[in-house]
Write a structure and sequence with these properties.
Elements lengths: L1 H18 L13 E2 L14 E2 L3 E8 L4 E8 L10 E6 L2 E2 L10 H12 L5 E5 L11 E7 L2 E2 H7 L4 E2 L7 H13 L26
Parallel strand pairs: 5-8
Antiparallel strand pairs: 1-2, 3-4, 3-7, 4-5, 6-10, 7-8, 8-9
Helix pairs in contact: 3-4
Length: 206
């Protein structure tokens, strides 16, 4: 009897180990997506990460939505692997450091904090994206299972943009989450004292 119980426990452990991805998240082979991790914002409506996503190694943050990264795994796109490219978070309109917009520095620092230490972040191209977009290739990004686009919007460090693609419903919900709580750019008192919020906007690196 004890032998049979031990065998069943071992079999169960084996199934669980196979079902778990490399980052500890449980992968759902039936849906093709990995469960979303909830970030510091508390927003729980993030877009799930496709299991077939490509991977990037972020090298520099330009602003709260734009970054430079090396393509490690193109994930079925025509992006050249091993080369660096400019990317931007699809559907995320972040404050501009160049224009000294309110919270530009904070937004940039927030994005850096999310991807810092994540040598490989997962991505998929936004629906209808062009890989030669001069403003940056629009992507949906996941860091350790956290949907970065949604987390930035949910913290109020950016406004909803136009190129969200098939994840617009998720992105709109993230922005509404910040609006309801008057977080970030939705806080009417943040920049009333004339502070442009762009401190640290010229810092480089990831």
């Amino acid at each position: 009897m004890r032998t049979r119980v031990a065998a069943l426990m071992l079999a169960g452990a084996t199934v669980l180990a196979v079902a778990c991805g490399g980052d500890g998240g449980v992968q759902d082979a039936d849906t093709g997506f990995q469960p979303v991790r909830i970030g510091a914002s508390g927003f729980g409506g993030g877009a799930p990460q496709p299991l077939a996503a490509g991977t990037l190694s972020v090298s520099k943050i330009a602003d709260g939505a734009t970054f430079f990264a090396r393509v490690e795994d193109a994930g079925g796109t025509d992006l050249p692997e091993g080369e660096n490219a400019r990317f931007r978070l699809a559907g995320v309109d972040a404050p501009s450091p160049a224009d000294e917009e309110c919270l530009a520095g904070t937004s940039k620092t927030h994005l850096r904090g999310i991807v810092r230490g994540a040598h490989d972040v997962s991505f998929v191209l936004a629906e209808g994206a062009e890989t030669d977009d001069p403003d940056g290739v629009p992507v949906h990004l996941w860091s350790r299972g956290l949907w970065v686009n949604g987390e930035v919007l949910a913290r109020g460090y950016a406004e909803l943009g136009d190129d969200t693609g098939d994840r617009r419903q998720h992105a709109a919900a993230a922005e509404e989450f910040a609006r309801e709580r008057e977080q970030g750019v939705w806080n009417p008192s943040l920049c009333d004292d004339g502070d442009d919020g762009a401190a640290g906007a010229t810092e480089e690196g990831a």
